[in-house]
Amino acid sequence: MSDIHMQREHTLGLPAARKLANEWLEQAESRLGLSCTYVEGASCDEISFARAGVSGTVQVTEDRFVLDAELGFLFSAFQDKIETEVARRMDKLLAQAAQA
Q: Which of 46, 71, 43 is closest to 58 using CA atoms?
């Protein structure tokens, strides 16, 4: 079971969702030090991410993003703060994409 589970619906379609997911991936690697892998599928892409103390996935579809993350012992003490920040960044990226 995930320590963090987050889902955001959107109306971007898969090509635009992929672009947004790649932006998130670049930010996650540079700002958070995550090691990320992006695998495209026919109707669902998956980003796998990891670093010491955290690992998880983001599923990317034509109408939603689903994030599941497992936190290690030290990070679990900050679960609420981490979840709030992830939600804020995800919502900000979606709002920017909707305005574009």
A: 46
